Structure formats: structure tokens, C-alpha cells
Amino acid sequence: MAYTRRFGRGGLAADGAGGTPLTVSRVALLVLIAGFGAGRVAGLEVSLRVQAGVYLLGMVAMNLPHGGYEHFENLRRRAATFQGGYVGAYLLSVALFVGLLVLAPVAGLALAVSVAMAKGGLGGLKVMDALPGTDHLRTRPQRWLAAAVRGGAVMVVPMVFWPDVFYAFSTIMVSIFEPGALSGVAGDFGARRVALGAGYGALLATHLGLGYWRSAGTGSFLADAAETLLLVAYFALVPVVIAVGLYFPLWYSARQVARTTAVDDEPADAGGGWLDFLDADEPRLVALGAWGVLIAGSIATFGLAALVWTIAPQPLGGAGPLPGLVAFWSIFVSIIALPHVIVGGLADRERGIWYVP
What contacts 351, CB < 8 A, 6 or more positions away? Predict the structure, then answer.
């Protein structure tokens, strides 16, 4: 019952805080569902070239800056020892993930899929804590189930409704490090698709059933159920490449902004860290320092991308330029998302990138 006591009054938001980005995320997905749903009924198809362009716009131009901002805000006003350990753990996670992709690319693909699900599910759970509330999630297992269902919508639902495209891009992603490796373990993909769909459907029904049974009339269950079904419809109707490319900037990032603006309490200041100059009284120093941090982050990010490109035997996975870049960026963003979830989210119990007091 600890979670009910903590979040039982409909979340921590006060006076509609965070409401605008929350509304934007919901409306954006509804518009995309309506548009692509109507297009499917009319028999229209979106070329893979267009899908790839939308994906790269969403994931590189729109979403990447928010990931850096999450880490930046988490590291501000933290002690230098914490910052050093954080960066060290981040780099170690990146190195281990790259090593896994080189030595066992199929296992690396499985980890990449799991990371996307964890980011969507666990990050979404914290948004619920801060905004509509989670009084209907009474136990820890029920909270994990909620995260699994929301995260599963991001990857499992596209596997079921867009199997050919999902499998094709998975093949390209694995071929970046070992051409043809996925075909050797694919087996009966159709049977696995049915099993995945049935398993996810069972989890979805259990989550909604338990939530309804344990709801307390505050509206948190209705918000959770509506958003969960919205996600399922989105990934079922919107072509998978576009769906994933726009999900993270239009849903994940927008909702994390909503969470940030909704929490009542600010984390305690530690000070004594490398970024203390950003809190100086001199505006020019702050502006110059912020510019330097931005440049350093950009160099580090794209330097790592260049390193992965150099290490990979076949950076485009044997595909054309746009599909190959989608596959490469999907692998790369998974590499930096692993420590994002583990180091920035789960391991940092004091604050973390999904901080809710």
C-alpha cells in the first residue's frame, strides 16, 4: 500500500502543471492514428524512403537533444565524485554494449529492443506518478506490469502488426556487425509473432483488469487505460518506422517535460561539482559555460557515433543509404540509451533522470 499512500491523490501536479506538453503528446498521437488509419482504409501506402526520412528527423533532430538535456539536468548541482562515477559508469556501459554487438549481434539486438521497451515503460510510469497518479497500482509487481505493458507497446505491438518491416530492419541492424546472422536464428517468425501477440494481449488484459479492480475513483486508472490503449492503437496503425521515429520526441520527451514541470519539490543542491559555474551570478560566464557544455556533448555523441561506424564491418548493414542510416541510428541510439536507463534512471535512486519526489 506504500504506493497508494504516496501517489493516491491523483499525482503530484499542482494547478495543471505540465498539462500542455501532456496534452500535446496525446493529441499528436491521436492525429497520427487518425491520419494513417484513414490512409490505410483508402489503400494509401507511405514509401520506405519517406518513412526513413521521418524517422531520422524525429530521432536525430527532435529527440537527441532531449536525451542530453536529461543527463545535463541530472548532473547539475551534484558532487564531483558522483559526477565522475556517473560518467565512468556511462562509458563502461557503452563499451560493454558495443562489445556485445561485435561478439554477439543477435543478443545485442535483443538488448536494444529491451532498452527501448524499458525506456518507454519505466519512463512512462514515472510520468504517471507525477501527473494523473498511480493509486490504482497498489503493489510493486503491478507497477512493473504497467511498465511492461507500456514498454511492450513500443516494440511488441509493431512486431505483431508490422512483422515484415520489423524483421527487415532487424536483419539490417544485425548485419551491421555480422551479415546474415539473424536468419540463422529466426526460425518460424510467424509462430513467434502469434505467441508474442497472445502473450502481450494477456499482459494488457491483466493490467487493465487489475487496474480497474483496484481503482479508487480518482481518475488515475481511466487515464492509464486510455493512454495505454492509445499507444497500442498508435503502434498498430502507424507504419513502424514512422511510429518509432516520432514516438520518442512526441510522446516520451514531451511527457518527460510534463513530469519535470509538474513535480512539487526540487532536488536538494549538493554543489562542489564540475557544473557549478552554470549557477554563477555572471550571465556571460553562464552563457559561455552552457555553450561549452553543449559543444562538448555534441562532440562526444557524434564522436561515439563515428567510432561505432568505424568499428562496424558494414555500417549500413548492406542496405540503401536511408534504410541503412535508420538501422545504424537505431543501433547507436540503443547504445547510448542503455546507460540512460540503467545509470541515469535505475541506479540513481537519489534523483535520476525520471525524478519524482
Answer: 74, 78, 267
Looking at the chain, the number of H-run helices and the number of E-run strands are 14, 0
pLDDT digits (tens, 9 = 90+) for 1-35: 344 434 444 455 444 557 889 999 999 999 999 99
Q: Which residue spans within 26-148 are E strands per DSSP?
A: none
Contact yes or no for 232/149 (Cβ under 8 A): no
Amino acid sitting at position 99 = G
Grid cell, residue 161, equals 502488426
Contact indicator for 183, 194 with CB cutoff of 8 Å: no
pTM (two decimals): 0.91
Amino acid at position 279, single letter: D
Sign of the Cα torsion 56, 57, 63, 64 reads positive
| Number of Cβ atoms within 10 Å of the Cβ of 191 | 9
Q: Please answer whether residues 9 and 219 qualify as being in contact, where contact means their C-beta atoms are separated by less than 8 angstroms.
A: no
Q: Express each pLDDT in 307-333 by its tens digit.
A: 999 999 999 999 999 999 999 999 999
Residue 64: the pLDDT is 87
Cell numbers for 144, please give them. Answer: 512493473
Owner of C-alpha cell 498521437 = 29
